[in-house]
Amino acid sequence: MDYKSIYEKAYELMDVQLIDGDCGKLCNHHCCRTYDGEEKMGIYLMPYEYESMLRNSEFSENLKVERHTSFEYDIPHNIGYVHYIYCEDEFGCFRHLRPIQCRTYPFEPHMEKGKLYLIIEKDQIHNCPLIDKMDQWREEFIRRIYLGWKELIKIKKVRLMVEFDSKQRYDSNNIKIKLSESDILI
């Protein structure tokens, strides 16, 4: 399977703004940074994302990258490992190379009974101030994020990761908003 081609297509589909302009300017990049006194935060990359898109890129020059395994972290055993990154300069992000999780926030992919949904979790580390202003969201953003995830779950380990996270989310009743394909692709 050509992971790089799938990621390139997903990155292209997901290269769209939630609202007109850079939403991070509205909240001082709330979801991209750590606050005084907090532990430095990072983000998980999807399986094969680092190797396919970010290794040896200009983006990787500003990253601290760790390899997290299922023996040490809450990651499915059949995935083995994923990369965890810390952005060293949150205001110097190369937006065209930002990871999948950054592109799709505040949405998360969610699988139930083999169907893909986009959800927003109730409990979030970063609460996007735009969650309560969905009327301002661009429909194109929601549609393209969904289509990007449809591409990504073709990769077995990405699908396994999404299913694993979905089960945890479902079991803990951590779903605030859930959109199905018919809600999105009208």
Task: Give the SSE map.
Blueprint: H1 3-13, E1 43-44, H2 49-54, E2 63-69, E3 81-87, H3 100-104, E4 108-112, E5 115-120, H4 139-152, H5 156-171, E6 177-179, H6 181-184
Antiparallel strand pairs: 1-3, 2-3, 4-5, 5-6
Total domains: 1
Q: How would you sum up the global shape?
A: globular
Radius of gyration: 16 Å
How many β-strand runs? 6
Oligomerization: single chain
Largest sheet: 3 strands, antiparallel
Q: What portion of residues belong to β-strands?
A: 15-25%
Look at the helices and sheets and give the structural class.
alpha+beta
The sequence of SSEs as H and E is HEHEEHEEHHEH
State the end-to-end CA separation.
31 Å
Strand order of the largest sheet: 1-3-2
Textual characterization of the structure:
- The protein has 186 residues and is α+β, with helices and mostly antiparallel strands.
- It has one domain.
- The chain has 6 helices and 6 strands, in the order H-E-H-E-E-H-E-E-H-H-E-H.
- The strands form 2 sheets. Strands 1-3-2 form a 3-stranded antiparallel beta sheet, with no helix packed on it. A 3-stranded antiparallel beta sheet has the order 4-5-6.
- The protein is globular.
- The mean pLDDT is 83.
